[in-house]
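Bumping my old thread because nobody answered last time. Still need a sequence for this structure:
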């Protein structure tokens, strides 16, 4: 039993390292030990194994570990959102061109939203993000829309059990207040982020519904706050809603 428990702990640590690198990008050895609270000896062994199996790559010049080819190969085998992403991409590109802003599609993972497709703004100054980014859902427009798609009981359970960091002065971290925000988003059919995740960035988001009317993803238009007043946000919202409806028709929603 002791060996089995040790094996489970090692597996959990390996996955935690991969999550850390996926979230932060290339990391130093000290980022792993301090960020995950791992003993140096354990971290050395786990990192060496992951590098030997090509799940991580070690850069001798920067002394950092990044994701390797085996991690990429594993990600390519996942097909859970393949049809959704395939149908969404051309529609998102059209919306990015029409709105002039960045369009993102995300799904919910626990208390985080994970971006599965992105169409970047054609403008020089724009939101920079990448597929696979994992953000705190309570502070983003798509995240709040995804949380609003849960039952109120499940949303409260997840929010209460999680650490909700205050990322800007505008971030809402009180669970009761967040529940009010989610209820409003559920009733209105859209959610907003007013510089709650990053100062100077604003976004509007709508749900993407499945065949049974359930929320399977959320789509957003994100832009620098200085070029988005309330009137512009409403215009983006209408374009976003129309795009979500087109996507739902293609995917049977």
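Sorry it took so long. Here it is:
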């Amino acid at each position: 039993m002791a060996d089995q428990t040790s094996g489970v702990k090692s597996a959990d640590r390996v996955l935690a390292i991969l999550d850390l690198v996926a979230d932060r990008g290339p990391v130093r050895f000290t980022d792993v030990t301090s960020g995950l609270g791992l003993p140096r000896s354990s971290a050395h062994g786990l990192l060496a194994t992951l590098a030997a199996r090509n799940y991580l790559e070690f850069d001798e010049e920067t002394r950092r570990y990044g994701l390797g080819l085996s991690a990429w190969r594993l990600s390519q085998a996942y097909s859970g959102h393949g049809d959704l992403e395939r149908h969404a991409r051309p529609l998102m590109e059209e919306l990015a061109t029409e709105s002039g802003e960045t369009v993102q599609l995300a799904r919910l993972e626990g208390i985080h939203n994970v971006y599965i497709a992105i169409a970047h703004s054609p403008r020089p100054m724009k939101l920079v993000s990448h597929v696979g980014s994992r953000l705190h859902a309570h502070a983003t427009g798509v995240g709040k829309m995804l949380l609003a798609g849960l039952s109120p009981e499940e949303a409260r359970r997840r929010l209460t059990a999680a650490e909700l960091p205050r990322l800007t002065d505008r971030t809402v971290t009180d669970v009761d207040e967040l529940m009010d925000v989610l209820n409003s988003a559920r009733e209105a059919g859209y959610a907003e982020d007013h510089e709650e995740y990053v100062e100077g960035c604003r976004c509007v988001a709508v749900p993407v519904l499945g065949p049974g009317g359930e929320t399977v993803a959320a789509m957003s238009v994100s832009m620098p706050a200085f070029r988005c007043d309330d009137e512009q946000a409403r215009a983006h919202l209408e374009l976003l809603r129309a795009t979500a409806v087109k996507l739902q028709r293609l995917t049977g929603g």
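The longest helix spans residues 2-24. Let me know if any region looks off to you.
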